[in-house]
């Protein structure tokens, strides 16, 4: 088990009521959103994020993708460049 620390954050009561309506644990949701954001920013890997959330890596990648967080974060220019490099190398 990983070392863990507890933190305290203040949230408006209106947000807490949203959690209670959906029967969601606020601490679990804040943890999940923090991990997803760190992954989106490239601060942690998909494997690390999956481990922290208790998921299989591919399950996490699918979950993040459904939330609009891409597994591959590549621009069109980077993709075009990669395609040109592959063609130049003689690959089809």
Structure, briefly:
60% of the residues lie in helices and 0% in strands. By secondary structure, the protein is mainly α.
Output the keywords.
mainly alpha; single chain; 92 residues; 5 helices; elongated
How would you summarize the topology of this molecule?
Elements: H1 13-21, H2 26-40, H3 46-53, H4 57-66, H5 76-88
Helix pairs in contact: 2-3, 3-4
Descriptive report:
The protein is mainly α. 60% of the residues lie in helices and 0% in strands. The chain is built from five helices and no strands. Helix 3 crosses helix 4 (57-66). The longest helix has 15 residues, at 26-40. The protein is elongated and about 60 Å long. It starts with 12 loop residues before the first helix and ends with a helix. The model has no long low-confidence stretch (mean pLDDT 86).
Tell me the helix content.
55-70%
Major sheet description? none
Strand portion: under 5%
How far apart the termini lie comes to 46 Å
Structural class: mainly alpha
* N-to-C series of helices and strands: HHHHH
**Strand tally, please?**
0
What is the mean pLDDT?
86
List low-confidence stretches: none
So what's the overall shape?
elongated
The DSSP helix count reads: 5
Q: Radius of gyration from the CA trace?
A: 18 Å
């Amino acid at each position: 088990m990983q070392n863990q620390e507890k933190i305290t954050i203040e949230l408006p009561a209106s947000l807490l009521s949203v959690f209670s309506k959906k029967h969601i644990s606020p601490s679990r949701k804040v943890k999940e959103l923090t991990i997803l954001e760190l992954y989106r920013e490239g601060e942690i890997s998909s494997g690390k994020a999956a481990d922290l959330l208790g998921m299989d890596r591919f399950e996490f990648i699918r979950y993040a993708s459904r939330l609009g967080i891409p597994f591959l974060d590549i621009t069109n220019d980077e993709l075009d460049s990669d395609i040109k490099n592959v063609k130049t190398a003689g690959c089809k």
